[in-house]
Design goal:
heterodimer, A: alpha/beta, Aspartate Aminotransferase, domain 1, Aspartate Aminotransferase, domain 2, four-stranded antiparallel sheet, 17 strands, about 15% strand, B: alpha+beta, Sufe protein. Chain: A, about 40% helix
C-alpha cells in the first residue's frame, strides 16, 4: 500500500510518474486473452488503487459496526470514519458545511432524490424543466417521470455538430414557466465540458435553481460548488477511483431544509410516534437506513488519493493522452471522431466506416483493450448524430501513450480484416 | 488473429456483412415485424411474403454489427422457399446452435449454411446480436405486432 509520502513522490513539479501510479492499481497487472490489460473504459468506471481497497478492508477488519447509534467503541469509531468521509467530500468540492453533503448510491440516486423531493414539492402543472441534448439517461428519465406526474414540460437545450451546448438557444428557452434546470457538467459520451457557470448565472437572474450532474467532472477537473454557485451537485464514487454503490448529493442548505424527506426509515428521524414523526436534521433527514459505510469510507480514501496527486496534475496528464490519441487516430482511415468540443475531458468517441462498434469492441477485447461500445446511456444524443452507437475510449490517470498505441494498432488490424 | 475470434468472424460472415443478401424493403410483403436491441441500439425490419403456407420471399433492412447482419442475411437464404413449419424448425435449430446446445461440433450437414455461426456460442454477449433477426422473423411469421426486444 502506498503511504501518503509515496503518493506525493509520484507527482512532483517536474514530472508525473505514471509508472509509479500504475503500481498502485493491482488490476492493471491482469492479462486478458493473454495480453496485457489496456483499460480504456474509465468513463464507465475507474479502477481502484490499493489505497482505497485497503481502507475498505481495514474498515471491515477493524471497525465494522453500525453508525450513529451505538455507545460502544466500534460504533463510535465507524461513525467517526463515516463522518470523516463526509468532511473529505465537503472539502473536495468546497462546500460550506458538511451538512450539505448527503450520501447516496450514486449520481442517479442523487438526481432522483432531487426530482422526487424538491421536484414533487415545487413543480406544478404547466411548469417547465430544462435539460440538454447530451444528458445521460439518469438526467433525463427522473425529470420525465416528474413531468408526467405533474403535467409539466421538459425542454431541451440543443447542441451543435461539435457536441457543444448552444448557449443562445438555452437563453431563449428560459421563460417565466421555467422552474428548474438540470445540466451535465461533462458529457460521458463526448467529453464536452459545459460552461455550467454561465448557465447557473443566467438561471439565477430569474431565481431558477440548477442541478449539476458532475459524475464525469469530479475526476478530471476541480469542482468548486461555491464558485459555481450551483444549487445541487451530484456525483458517484466509482468514477473517481472509489467503490461502486456510493455517491453524494450537495445542496444549498435553505433548499435542503425546505425539502420533504426522500425515503423514510431509521436514522432520518428525531422522534417517531404512530401519530407523527419529526425528521432528523441535515444531512440525516435524507439518509434513511444503514448506509454503505464501507463505501463512504472508501470514497473518502479515493478523494484523499486524488487530492494528493493533485487534480490539476491528473488533468494535465489526461489532456496529454487525449491530444496524443486524437492525433494518432487521425491516421486511421475511415475514422470519424464524435464530439469535437473545444473544452473536452479525456474521452475519445468515434465511429469507423462500415464497421459496427460492437465488432470493434470484440476485436479490441482480444488485444486486451477494454473500451465501451454502444449508446452510452445517451440515446437522444446518438439520434442527434444519426448513429446507433459509438466506440468510446476514455483515459484516466494511469493510462499511457503506449496503451493508446495498442488501441490504434488494434483499430488498424480490424480495418484489414473487415476491409 | 486469435483462433476463437477467427471462428466468430469466419470469411463467410465477413462476406455477408459486406454484401448482405436480400437486404431490401419489400413492397408486396404480407407480413412484417420490427426488432430492436436496446443494449446497442441496433434495429432491424424483417419482411415476409407468405403464399399458400410457403415463404415465397424474405428480406430485411436495418443497422447492426457484422454478426447480426450476417445472421440476418443467412437467415433469409435458408428460410426462403420453406414452409412456415420448416422455418420454425430452422429457428429452433439456429437457437440451439448459438446457445451451445448442439455442442462444439454440431452436425454441419443438418445445419447447412448456418453452421458458420457456431463460433457465436463462445461469445455469450453476442448471442443476442445473432438472434435478433430470427426472433423478428418469428414475430413476422406469427403476425405479432409488438416490436421484438432482446432485453
Amino acid at each position: 500500500m502506498s503511504t501518503e509520502a509515496e503518493i506525493a513522490v509520484a507527482v512532483s513539479k517536474k514530472y508525473y510518474d505514471v509508472n509509479r501510479i500504475r503500481e498502485d492499481f493491482p488490476i492493471l497487472k491482469k492479462k486478458v486473452h493473454d495480453k496485457n490489460l489496456v483499460y480504456l473504459d474509465n468513463a464507465a468506471t475507474t479502477q481502484k488503487p490499493t489505497y482505497v481497497i485497503d481502507r475498505v478492508n481495514k474498515y471491515y477488519t477493524t471497525m465494522n459496526a453500525n453508525i450513529h447509534r451505538g455507545v460502544h467503541a466500534l460504533s463510535q469509531e465507524a461513525t467517526e470514519a463515516f463522518e470523516g468521509a463526509r468532511i473529505q467530500i465537503k472539502q473536495f468540492i468546497n462546500a460550506l458545511g458538511k451538512n450539505q453533503i448527503i450520501f447516496t448510491r450514486g449520481t442517479t440516486e442523487s438526481i432522483n432524490l432531487v426530482a422526487s423531493s424538491y421536484g414533487r414539492a415545487n413543480i406544478k402543472e404547466g411548469d417547465e424543466i430544462i435539460i440538454s441534448h447530451m444528458e445521460h439517461h439518469s438526467n433525463i428519465v427522473p425529470w420525465q417521470l416528474l413531468c408526467k406526474e405533474k403535467n409539466a414540460e421538459l425542454r431541451i437545450i440543443p447542441i451543435n455538430n461539435n457536441g457543444e451546448l448552444i448557449y443562445g438557444e438555452f437563453e431563449k428557452l428560459v421563460n417565466e414557466k421555467t422552474k428548474f434546470i438540470s445540466i451535465v457538467y461533462v458529457s460521458n459520451s463526448l467529453g464536452t465540458v459545459n460552461d455550467v457557470k454561465r448557465i447557473i448565472n443566467y438561471a439565477h437572474q430569474f431565481n431558477i435553481p440548477v442541478l449539476v450532474d458532475a459524475a464525469q467532472a469530479v475526476n478530471h477537473i476541480k469542482v468548486d460548488v461555491q464558485d459555481l454557485d450551483c444549487d445541487f451537485l451530484a456525483f458517484s464514487g466509482h468514477k473517481i477511483y472509489g467503490p461502486t454503490g456510493i455517491g453524494a448529493l450537495y445542496g444549498k442548505v435553505e433548499l435542503l431544509e425546505a425539502m420533504p424527506p426522500y425515503q423514510g426509515g431509521g436514522d432520518m428521524i428525531s422522534k417517531v410516534t404512530f401519530e407523527e414523526t419529526t425528521y432528523n436534521e441535515l444531512p440525516h433527514k435524507f439518509e434513511a437506513g444503514t448506509p454503505d459505510i464501507a463505501g463512504a469510507i472508501g470514497l473518502g480514501a479515493a478523494i484523499e488519493y486524488v487530492s494528493k496527486l493533485g487534480i490539476e496534475n491528473i488533468k494535465e496528464h489526461e489532456t496529454g493522452l487525449l491530444e496524443y490519441a486524437t492525433k494518432q487516430v487521425s491516421e486511421v482511415p475511415g475514422l470519424r471522431i464524435i464530439g469535437k468540443a473545444r473544452e473536452k475531458t479525456s474521452v475519445l468517441s468515434f465511429v469507423l466506416d462500415n464497421i459496427h462498434p460492437h465488432d470493434i469492441g470484440t476485436f479490441l477485447d482480444f488485444e486486451g483493450v477494454a473500451i465501451r461500445t454502444g449508446h452510452h446511456c445517451t440515446q437522444p444524443l446518438m439520434q442527434r448524430f444519426k448513429i446507433p452507437a459509438t466506440s468510446r475510449a476514455s483515459f484516466a490517470m494511469y493510462n499511457t501513450k503506449d496503451e493508446i498505441d495498442v488501441l490504434v494498432n488494434g483499430l488498424k488490424k480490424i480495418i484489414k480484416v473487415f476491409g | 488473429m486469435d483462433a476463437e475470434l477467427k471462428e466468430l468472424y469466419q470469411q463467410v460472415i465477413l462476406d455477408h456483412n459486406k454484401s448482405p443478401r436480400n437486404f431490401r424493403q419489400m413492397e408486396n410483403a404480407t407480413q412484417h415485424a420490427e426488432g430492436y436491441n436496446p443494449l446497442c441500439g441496433d434495429h432491424i425490419d424483417v419482411y415476409l411474403l407468405i403464399e399458400e403456407g410457403f415463404v415465397k420471399d424474405v428480406s430485411f433492412k436495418g443497422e447492426g454489427c457484422a454478426i447480426s447482419k450476417a445472421s440476418a442475411s443467412l437467415m433469409t437464404q435458408v428460410v426462403k422457399g420453406k414452409t412456415k413449419e420448416e422455418a420454425e424448425k430452422l429457428f429452433e435449430k439456429f437457437h440451439d446452435l448459438v446457445t451451445g446446445k448442439l455442442g462444439a461440433n454440431p452436425d454441419i450437414d443438418e445445419l447447412g449454411k448456418l453452421a458458420v455461426l457456431s463460433g457465436v456460442q463462445e461469445f455469450p454477449v453476442r448471442v443476442k446480436c445473432a438472434s435478433l433477426a430470427w426472433h423478428t422473423m418469428m414475430n413476422a411469421l406469427h403476425n405479432k405486432e409488438e416490436k421484438v426486444s432482446t432485453e
